[in-house]
Amino acid sequence: MNKTEAWNLFVKSGSVADYLNYKSAENSVTSQKNFQKEQNENIHRRTDNQTTEYR
């Protein structure tokens, strides 16, 4: 069940269990986005800016 379907089910029923299902679906989407973002970060967490010389 996706986030929109879970929300529509909650709106119709108004039950706490349906709201918790909606929040669970919403959190899974957010964690997938965060996981993809983390995968794209630099491994060493450096900016890769090069300077003219090392002091």
Features:
about 55 residues, mainly alpha, single chain, 2 helices
In brief:
The protein is mainly α and 55 residues long. 65% of the residues lie in helices and 0% in strands. The longest helix is centred in the middle third of the chain and has 25 residues, at 16-40.
Blueprint (SSEs and pairs):
Layout: H1 3-13, H2 16-40
Helix pairs in contact: 1-2
Q: State the total count of DSSP E strands.
A: 0
Helicity range? 55-70%
Helix-and-strand structural type: mainly alpha
**Radius of gyration, taken over Cα atoms and rounded to an integer in Å:** 20 Å
Question: Which residues sit in consecutive blocks of at least 5 with pLDDT less than 50?
Answer: none
User: Mean pLDDT across all residues, rounded?
Assistant: 77
Terminal Cα span: 56 Å
H/E element sequence: HH
Count of discrete alpha- or pi-helical segments spanning 4 or more residues: 2
User: Major β-sheet, in short?
Assistant: none
Percent strand equals under 5%
Overall shape: it is rod-shaped
Structure report:
α1 runs antiparallel to α2. This protein is mainly alpha-helical and 55 residues long. It has two helices and no strands. The termini are far apart. 65% of the residues lie in helices and 0% in strands.
